[in-house]
């Protein structure tokens, strides 16, 4: 493997979720023929904590910091048990974990972190490593959930809406589906009977022609991307509902949900309930978030 080949970076903190995320990322790294980099950094204690809560959080951080070598070794051993030949490196940094992962994303293929459910209140009031990294990373970010490892039996599902972020999400979804040998399902959310531009007499709109035009646009976009990954079996559909509902409705037969984000800040994401935030709150399978 070339020395400059971008690795998959995983944030680890000793929790079962982070070790499971590292094992999932390792399986993907093997498929992508790249290295795995396990990164530990200082956890965030959040904001607006009471004095006692802050003291407890600080004590937990101190213990975790003292045990960092053991935490990284445990994660590396779990990964090596699955993939003995995989190239694995470890690193510990004395900076907040969101800053560390965002910086690492500049030279990474993917950033992966285990994630509990993220609520708007958490994102707005105390901050969220998951939301911060997903918002500001320079490469796709995978928030790992669930129990199963990557396989070729379930689909990669991607949301698409013709924006630059969605185009990047589509390209990355094809890439991952190709390396996993999985089918790809492209979902375009387009609530019917909603004009794509202002009109003065809505009841005179030829809705069938408009829908046919949308199907044509979607087919062109998917086919262009498919030419780069001809081995991927891709299907696409239009869903007459919101993007989050359309994607979550496909999660039962999906191994990964992929979505683009426009890079909104944490407060905006929490207040507006974006598609990315909805998936972070409700998905029980890994979610890949791609910026523009």
Folded structure, characterized:
Pfam families: Usp (PF00582). Residues 7-144, 155-290 form the UspA domain. It comes from Mycolicibacterium vanbaalenii. This is Universal stress protein/MSMEI_3859. This protein is an alpha/beta fold. Helix content is 45%, strand content 20%. It has 11 helices and 10 strands. A 10-stranded mixed beta sheet has the order 3-2-1-4-5-10-9-6-7-8, sandwiched between helices. Helix 1 links the parallel strand 1 (8-11) and strand 2. Residues 268-273 have low confidence and may be disordered.
Percentage beta strand: 15-25%
Would you give the CATH topology of the largest domain?
Rossmann fold
* Count of runs of 4 or more consecutive helical residues: 11
SSE order, one letter for each helix or strand: EHEHHEHEHHEEHEHEHEHHE
- What's the number of extended β-strand segments? 10
How many separate domains? Answer: 2
Which strand order do you get reading across the main beta sheet? 3-2-1-4-5-10-9-6-7-8
Question: How helix-rich are the residues, as a percent range?
Answer: 40-55%
CATH class placement of the largest domain:
Alpha Beta
Secondary structure class reads: alpha/beta
Mean pLDDT rating: 81
End-to-end separation in angstroms reads: 28 Å
Shape: elongated
């Amino acid at each position: 493997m070339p020395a400059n080949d971008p690795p998959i970076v995983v944030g680890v903190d000793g929790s079962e979720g982070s070790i499971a995320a590292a094992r999932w990322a390792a399986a993907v790294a093997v498929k992508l023929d790249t290295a795995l980099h396990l990164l530990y950094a200082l956890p965030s204690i959040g904001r607006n904590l009471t004095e006692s809560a802050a003291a407890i959080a600080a004590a937990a951080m101190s213990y975790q910091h003292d045990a960092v070598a053991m935490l990284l070794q445990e994660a590396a051993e779990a990964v090596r048990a699955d993939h003995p030949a995989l190239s694995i490196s470890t690193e510990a940094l004395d900076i907040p974990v969101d800053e560390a992962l965002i910086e690492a994303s500049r030279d990474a293929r993917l950033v992966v972190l285990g994630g509990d459910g993220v609520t708007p209140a958490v994102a707005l009031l105390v901050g969220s490593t998951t939301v911060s990294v997903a918002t500001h990373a320079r490469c796709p970010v995978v928030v790992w959930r669930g129990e199963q490892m990557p396989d070729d039996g379930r689909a990669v599902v991607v949301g698409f809406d013709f924006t630059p972020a969605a185009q990047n999400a589509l390209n990355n979804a094809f890439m991952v589906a190709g390396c996993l040998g999985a089918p790809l399902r492209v979902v375009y959310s387009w609530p019917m009977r909603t004009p794509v531009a202002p009109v003065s007499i809505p009841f005179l709109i030829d809705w069938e022609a408009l829908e046919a035009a949308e199907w044509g646009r979607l087919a062109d976009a998917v086919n262009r991307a498919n030419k780069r990954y001809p081995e991927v079996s891709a299907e696409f559909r239009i869903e007459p509902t919101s993007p989050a509902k359309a994607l979550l409705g496909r999660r039962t037969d999906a191994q990964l949900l992929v979505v683009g984000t426009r890079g909104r800040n944490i407060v905006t994401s929490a207040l507006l309930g974006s598609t990315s935030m909805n998936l972070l709150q409700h998905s029980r399978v890994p979610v890949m978030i791609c910026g523009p």
